[in-house]
Every structure is written in C-alpha cells, then in structure tokens.
Amino acid sequence: MRASESSAAPLWHEPTQERSRRRVERILEAARELLCEGDAGQLKMRELAARAGVPVGSLYQFFPDREALLACLLSRHLEGLDGLVQQRFEGVTSREEFIEAADGLLEGMYRALAREPAIAQVSIEVQRSPALRALDLESTRRNARALARLLRSLGGTQVPRARLETSCFLICDLWGNAATRALGLPKREGERLIREYAAMTRAYMFSLFDG
Fold this sequence. Notes:
The chain is mainly alpha-helical. It is 77% helix and 0% strand.
C-alpha cells in the first residue's frame, strides 16, 4: 500500500534525498535479513543499525521505533500485492475471465510471500499492533471495493451491493490468510491448501454471479 494512499500519516519518514533513500534501503534490507533469522518481536534497533552499517541516530531519524519499521516493510509488501491485484484483473470482460484471474491471484500471493520470508514474521506482528492491522485492513478494503466494482460492471449478479462488498472483503481477506498459512506448511501440503481454497473461492464466486 502506498503511504500516500493511506487515510493516516505514515509512521516512518520518507527521505527525499537520494543519499538518504539509499540509506533507508540498506536499513530495510538489513531488517529483512534479521527477520529471516528470528522473531519480529525480538528485533532490536541497535542490532539493526549495526547490521545496516548506519548510526543509530540515522535509523531513528527515519524509523522512530520498531513498529514504524515493520509498518514500512508491510506497506511495501501490500503495495506489491495491490499491483498484483490490478495486474490480474486488468482487461477482464467476462465472469469466466474474472474467475480465472481470481484463481491466478491466490497462487500469485502465495508465490509473492514465498519470495519475501521476512513478511511472514511481520504478519505475526499484524495481530499484535493496531497500526499494522490498520495498514492491512485498509489494503484489504481497497482491493475488495475494486473487485466489487468490477463484478457489478460485468453484470449478471443480482446480489445486493452491501452483500457483494462484504463478500469481496471476505474473499480478499481470506486470500491473504490462506497464502500465509500455506507458506507455513510443508511445500506439498501448502500447495494442496492453495488449490483447495482456490476451488472453494471459485465456487463461491460463481454463486455471486448466479445469485
């Protein structure tokens, strides 16, 4: 999720100078490394500064606390997922294309999470932090509204608007949860879970068109 699209000001400071942007990238990359090595709840800012090779004061200049750092990482991940949603549904003109795009989106989310193991640790913190939950919720709501608008534009559904938006919210929210859960399982079991949830979602989406 882009910070500029959030209804609240970001918790972190976005640098404007190129040198500062490079420093922030080093900090975030070091944070990803540390998160892959341990629990996000145990991440220490001084240890992070040392790993990134930056003064502690510079770290706090951009990220006043651990929550701000995790929020930035989560925001960038959600921005990537937003782009994936837009890409998958771009040019969809029929319900069959919509269902096919939805199937591919769930697998795409699973693959995206597999490429970012640090986000699995951040996801655990989402349940503990109101600020992180707000970022995650806003992204889910935004994508749900986009899907609901697309479904209405395709026609063929008699589902009331409020129910349609609620259904799309649940679909988007559970997509992310299913992908996160699958990533924590052995590979073959995780892939079976993704296939099964995709089949369940497909059947439910067809019911929205037929409803």
